[in-house]
Structures are given as structure tokens and as C-alpha cells.
Amino acid sequence: MKIIASLVMAVWMTLPIEASAQSGGPATDLVVVELFTSQGCSSCPPADALLQQLTARSDVLPLALHVDYWDYIGWKDQFADPAFTRRQKGYAHEGGRQMVYTPQMIINGQEDVVGANAMKLSDAIAAHKVQPSLVAIAVDGTSSGTGDISLALRRADAAPLLSGPISIQLVRYAPLKTVDISRGELAGRRLDYANVVEQLDRVAEWDGQGTLELSITLTDTRPAALLVQQAPYGAILAAAKLN
């Protein structure tokens, strides 16, 4: 069974994908996969490795958000941020769940998947791929450091499907970091962590009416992405890579 699962994973991770956003044009739909993980969690490495495999897909935006609630067991996660723990708890509240755990993946802000369950993750991504995003994102010029971005609903009748404000968030992340862990449940391991989120900032709020125009300046070369999400922890309506 493990061999079969590995073969399925190899196939779906390497399927050819169309190229993503073009400058000045609409961004290709991305499925956002957020992994809540910790360097202090002994069951997290398989999920961390799975997220790293996802980085090969241009139709998926995988993001690793390290939480801080495992720090007490002997190893302080170097990438943990209390804001990411609050985000995970926010998703749990919105989804009617009574607890949080690691490793956990949230797909497009909506679906909860155990982080190392490759088959369920594959099914969830495929299901979200066939649902066109409600919001179109056009990006122009971020390769030069400053980009002009416009957001608009793809359909005039989509407005009733939205509830409350829409949060526009800028994500900055590190493509790959390697950590030597000397204490805690993973003591003695050297582990790679992909797409480690270092900043997640709200840059605008939108009511979904008309077209939202904004300009974003990237002050360094780290990868960046834009998330358009029902505030505060609802569905991710669209996402685009900015550089």
C-alpha cells in the first residue's frame, strides 16, 4: 500500500501544468495550501516533505506557517509566530472545530486535511481546481519591485455570494530553510522546510464592489504572493504570485 501511495504521489505531483500569471493580465487560479506545522512536532516531517513536493506545481501556492504551541517541549521553533497560531485557531472557529493540531493543512481557507494524508490532499486540490475563483487578479510590474494590482469580481452576480469585508493580504516567504534540531522530539534531525512564511500582512480591505486598485512595493527579493480572503478567516477567493 505504501508503494502504491508513493507512485500515485509521484504521478500527481509531476503532471504538466500551464504557466501562471502574465504581467498585465489576469493571474492563473491558484489553490492555496496552508500547512500549520512545528519543529517540535514529531509527526510533522512527512507533511513538511509533502509541502516541499507541492512547490513543483505552478497551480498550487503551498505555504508553511509555523505555530508556537509546541515550543514548551524542549525546542523553540525558529520560524514560529503567535499570529500563525491565531490564524489556525481562527480557521478552527470558522469551521466549527473544537481544537487545533499539527500537521494540519487548510485548502483555500475552507477544507481541513491531516497534513501527511497525500491522497486526501490530492483529492482536495483537484476539487478546488475545478471551482473558478470569484475574483480576478491582474498584476503588472512587480518584477521591478513595485507592482500595480487590480481586483474585480469575475461575474456581476457573484456579489451575493460574498459576506462581509474582503481582506487583501501580502505574504512573504523563504523558499527553503534547513534546520539542525538539537532538542525536543526531533532532536538530532536535520530538516528542510519549504515556503516558510515570514510575513503575512493585511494591505487593503475591499467590499467587492467595482474594481480595487492598489500598488505594492517589494523591498527585497523574497517570493511574494497576494491572498484575497473573506475576512477574517473565511474562504480564499483568489491568490496570485507576485514575483
Quick tags:
alpha+beta, four-stranded antiparallel β-sheet, four-stranded mixed β-sheet, 4 helices, globular
Describe this structure as you would to a colleague:
- The chain is α+β, with helices and mostly antiparallel strands and 243 residues long.
- It contains four helices and twelve strands, in the order H-E-E-H-E-H-E-E-H-E-E-E-E-E-E-E.
- The protein has helices spanning 2-13, 45-54, 82-94, 118-129; strands spanning 25-26, 31-37, 60-66, 104-107, 111-114, 135-140, 146-153, 166-180, 190-206, 211-217, 224-230, 236-241.
- A four-stranded antiparallel β-sheet has the order 1-6-7-10, with no helix packed on it.
- Strand 6 and strand 7 form a beta hairpin.
Quick overview of this protein structure:
Keywords: Signal. The protein has helices at residues 2-13, 45-54, 82-94, 118-129; strands spanning 25-26, 31-37, 60-66, 104-107, 111-114, 135-140, 146-153, 166-180, 190-206, 211-217, 224-230, 236-241.
According to CATH, the fold-level topology is Glutaredoxin
- Which structural class best describes the helix and strand composition? alpha+beta
- The CATH homologous superfamily is named Glutaredoxin
Return the average pLDDT rounded to an integer: 87
Distance between the termini: 39 Å
Give the biggest sheet.
4 strands, antiparallel
**Count of individual helical segments:** 4
Q: Residue share in helices?
A: 10-25%
- Per CATH, the architecture is 3-Layer(aba) Sandwich
Oligomeric nature of the chains: single chain
For the record, the CATH class is: Alpha Beta
Count of distinct structural domains = 1
Strand content: 35-45%
Q: Rg from C-alpha positions?
A: 18 Å
How many beta-strand runs? 12
**Topology as a string of helices (H) and strands (E):** HEEHEHEEHEEEEEEE
Question: What's the arrangement of strands in the largest beta sheet?
Answer: 1-6-7-10
**Inertia-based shape:** globular
Low-pLDDT sequence parts: 1-27
